[in-house]
Amino acid sequence: MDPAATTPVRGPADLISIPPAAARLGAAFAAAGHQLHLVGGPVRDALLHRPGSDDLDFTTDARPERILELVRPLASTTWTTGIEFGTIGAQLDGLPCEITTFRADRYDRLSRNPAVAFGDSLEDDLRRRDFTMNAMALSVTGDRTFTDPFGGLAALARGVLVTPARPEESFADDPLRMLRAARFVSTLSVRVDPATRQAMTDLAPELGRITAERVQQELSKLLLGAGARAGLELLVASGLADVVLPELPALRMAADEHGQHKDVYAHTLQVLDQAIDLEDSGPDLILRWAAVLHDVGKPATRRFESDGRVTFHHHEAVGARLARQRLRELKYAKEVVEAVSELVFLHLRFYGYRRGEWTDSAVRRYVVDAGPLLPRLHKLVRSDTTTRNRRKAAALSAAYDALEERIALLKEQEELDNIRPDLDGNEIMQILGVAPGPVVGRAWAYLKELRLQEGPLDHDRAVEMLIRWYAQQS
């Protein structure tokens, strides 16, 4: 029998495994007469029995220059980009580690930049952290002392987010902590205690002074969480979304196209849930953003018709533009921006296929326009069905099944994933007797359009159509 299996658990420290690299680091600091404590996420996640992160955070009474002296002999590499804030980075046994001097930061309350004041007290350092469940520490210098001055373990057991200091003080010091609260709601399935939630509402405008890059990182982590819907609901209810994602709360004002009692905001959250259910290779940030933003064009395109209907004509085009604008402002990579906006633009096209009236040409165009996004488009379109009418939902599902079957059949017959003209550029120049230039590009585009319309052509037919087209150009 494994001896560890029979060892009684005496306290929280016994639940936290100390990696060998952390133990060696702790021994070096202890020999030099310094404290070293594992803090933050690694401690919290160990107590939750969650898979640990790939990096370790430590806090110590040693000053930055001394930290560097102690770490260098043990690390494969070190970095000092955060040394002015008291942080030294190091790679130990393949694990990224950050070791930070006890802090007693003072903030100017106009920006996120702290006026760094190093401290000598572990408790003071833990007081300045975001939430009590992240303000627990485990000594790695040999005694394994577990320090929890603000009741983080109890809050963790209750699944409640509480700040170590007064929430108004904590959030005024660093407004990003409010967004981090919503992220933890999504990723840890916790709730925010009433006083903390009220402070988030009162101080929501302060989030506007945080850089877009830091906001983007938190929103991505929130969206990739298992409880993304709950995190977004907190953003909207607290007013934080009005600052960083105003398109989402704006959807509460728009009735959906079916005239049902639910608004587009509720529909959007349901689409997100359904898209997550369809993921087959882990969380997909692009699909989830597309689900969140797919209807953001509706408020601007809402029209009340004389017969009582509500319409949102061309909301997919307006939504694609708004999605692109929002994601650019959040500093997302170009490939993310373009993929999400294209999915938003394409998500309605299927609704012209409900009775299977598309020609093969239309099916080809659907595949070509979606390109590598086609698998995500399939998921988004299927997720966009939130009607409670079972017969209608079944009909839509059957129609999309039929479309996917047609796509699969055409893929067997043609190279749909890489549709190209039946003649390449060299053949075009040889047949027409022209040099490289704009004419070749226009001829190539004409032949590709012909390929989409008619499917594969044999060589003689393609040559005939090219010559006929060229004759009409002069």
What is the strand content? Answer: 5-15%
Mean pLDDT, all residues: 87
Terminal CA distance:
89 Å
Here the CATH topology of the largest domain equals Beta Polymerase, domain 2
CATH class of the largest domain: Alpha Beta
Biggest β-sheet: count, sense, barrel? 7 strands, mixed
The CATH architecture of the largest domain can be named as 2-Layer Sandwich
Low-confidence stretches: 1-6, 256-261
Rg over CA atoms, rounded to whole Å, is 29 Å
Give me the side-by-side strand order of the main sheet.
3-4-5-2-1-8-9
Shape designation: elongated
Q: What count of helical segments does DSSP give?
A: 24
CATH superfamily of the largest domain: Beta Polymerase, domain 2
* Global structural class: alpha+beta
Please bin the fraction of helical residues: 40-55%
Q: Report the strand count.
A: 13
Number of domains: 3
Description:
The N and C termini lie far apart (89 Å). The radius of gyration is 29 Å and the shape is elongated. A hairpin with a 2-residue loop joins strand 4 (87-92) and strand 5. The chain is built from 24 helices and 13 strands. Strands 3-4-5-2-1-8-9 form a 7-stranded mixed sheet. By secondary structure, the protein is α+β, with helices and mostly antiparallel strands. It folds into 3 domains: 3-153, Beta Polymerase, domain 2, CATH 3.30.460.10; 283-417, no CATH class; 420-471.
